[in-house]
Fold:
Amino acid sequence: MAARFVAHRLDGMGDAPRPGRVRTVTDEQVAELVRLTLKPKPKPKNAAHWSTRSMARQVGMSQSAVSRIWRVFGPKPYRTESLKLSTDPFFIGQGPRRGGTASGAAGTGLVCADEKSQIQALDRSQPVLPMMPGVPERRSHDDLRAGTTTVFAALDTASGKAIGSLHRRHCTAEFKKFLAKLDRAVPVGLDVHLIVDNYTTHKTEPVRKWLLAPPRFRLHFTPTGSSWLNLVERWFAELTCKKLQRSVHHSVPALERDIRAWIKDWNTNPRPYVRHKTAEPIVDSLASY
Structure:
C-alpha cells in the first residue's frame, strides 16, 4: 500500500485487482430481478408470493444469489403488513384533536373510552408445566372455555389513570351504567370531553338522552377507520400483553377479579401516553409512498 502511494499517490490507494471467480450476474440481471420482484404480477405458480427458490427458477440464478440481492435491495415478498386508510373527509382536521393529542382547556378533562369485548376465561386442558433452566414454560395447545366478559374503560389522557367497569354484555344498558360510573368518578364541576369510536352502542337514543341530562359530557367520535387514534386502545394492549395473554382462569368471576386487580395496580402508578406525531406527518408519509 505504501509503495503504491509513493508511486501513484491517491490513485494507488484503491484495491488492486484480485484473483477469483469472474462475476456471472450482470447489473442488468440484478435490475430485472428487482423489477420482477416488485411487480404485482405475474406471480409464481401455485403460490401467492415469490420465494428465493421460485424466483431463482424464474430468472435462471441460484437461490443464494437471489437471497443476496434481496438482502441488498430490501424487497421482502414473503412479508405483509396491515394498513387501512380512513375515508372520513374530516380525518385531517379532526384526527389530532379527537385522538387525544391535545390537552383540555382549564376546567375540562379529556377522556378516551371504549370497550374490550369477548374476553375469554380460558383454562388449559392440562396443567401448565413451569419454566426450568433452559426450558420455557409449557402449556397445552388446547383450552377449556368458561365464558366471556367485557371491560368498559376510560383513560384520563392527562394523568393516565383508568376507570374500568366489567359486564357480561356490551349493549346500550351496560354503556349507560359505565357512563354513570364515569360521571361519579370525575370531579364535580369539570367538563368532560369523551372520545369514543363509531360503535353503534355509543350512538343509541337512550345514550343521547342520558348525555342531555348531565350537560358537562360531550362526545367526540373518532374518524371512521381510525380507532387507533383512541388512546384507550393502547391501554387495552397493555392489559392484553401483561395480563390476559398468558393467564389461566377457571371461571369468569376469577377472570374479572384479576382484571379489577390489574386496573387497581395500574392506577397506583399511572403512566399517561404521549403521542409524538399528529395526523399530518402520517398522511404526508402515505402520500409520498
Remarks:
- Confidence is low (pLDDT under 50) at residues 96-103.
- The longest strand covers residues 108-124.
